[in-house]
Amino acid sequence: MKKIARIKDIAERANVSAGTVDRVIHNRGRVSENAKKRILKAMEELKYEPNMMARALVSSGEFRIAALIPDPTHDEYWEAPFRGVDEAEAQMRQYGVIVDKFLFEQNDVESFKHEAQRLSEMSYKGILVAPIFYRESLAFLSKWSQEGIPFNLFNTHIPDYEPVTYVGQDSYQSGLLAGKLLHYGSKEPGTFIVAQLDKEVLNSTHLVKKEQGFMDYFEESKENGFKIVRAEINNWDDERSCHKQLDELVRRNSDLRGFFVTNSRSFVIGDYLKKNGLEYLQLVGYDLLTKNIGLLNEGVVDFLINQNPRGQGYWGVRLLVDHLVFRKEVDQIKYLPLDVVTKENLQYYI
């Protein structure tokens, strides 16, 4: 187990008294520059975390943060960031940190606006938000920025109003990766369909960036003969209507080689492929949802790109606390790894 550095350890390393170390940590009393330099160097070498300083910052009461995230009861994907937020809150509770969750329906813009307005009328030290509605998010990000309220973003990066940190994947790079996966798995040129299964794609910048990365991969590829067809399937939750649209796409593209689904709904396309004997077509998508995992194990889904949603929620809170409570400098972007999950390595991710 890693040993936690104590004031006594710092004092011994710097060859000063514990009282002198205490004065440097709390910036009180007189300490010679020479002793101060030795103490700061010892703190750095021992990786000392100033717990007492953090407690002092919150001694006046609770340190409340708001988390504006989609309701996980409506979409399994959001269960993971929800757990990540809870995990970070539990670890930071000793410093007086409390996280209040404001949940909205991910397919309802008005729900997002209502919850964002509600939290804006309260007094929070910081805000964590998944800004999945681009246009509607801008107004609130501008408001919080003008009011000097620090905020972190996760899932979707909107740099317009300079969040403290964005936590998530590089959406454009993940689109490039998806293109490479489908390309490598295709023995001969043909057509790939970029399937956007969302109600309002153009208002979801992370989906647009994934699509652009995918398109650019084939645009820059030296291989000839590949065609990319873009399909907005905003009726994905109506099986009859959705399958009718997919029937038409398959009929019109006789050289179809596979699908790229830009979000967690690969199971919608996978179910269609199974029902129509089209399992030989490649399918690449995102996220370890129960239905996606089942289709991955059956060989219907070829690859899932894991977006580490638990880590997005966890680091979204932790880095906000680092900035606000510990006064640490944090990177403006924390990209999480692009993990490619297959049937063969799935067991290491669940």
From TrEMBL:
Stretches that traverse the bilayer: none
InterPro entries for this protein: HTH_LacI, Lambda_DNA-bd_dom_sf, Peripla_BP_I, SBP_2_dom
Family annotation (CDD domains): HTH_LacI, PBP1_sugar_binding
Ranges of residues in domain HTH lacI-type: 5-59
SUPFAM superfamilies named in the record: lambda repressor-like DNA-binding domains (SSF47413), Periplasmic binding protein-like I (SSF53822)
UniProt xrefs under Pfam families: LacI, Peripla_BP_4
Keyword Repeat: no
Keywords: DNA-binding, Transcription, Transcription regulation
Signal peptide: none
GO MF assignments: DNA-binding transcription factor activity; transcription cis-regulatory region binding
Protein name per its UniProtKB record: LacI family transcriptional regulator
Annotated source species: Marinilabilia rubra
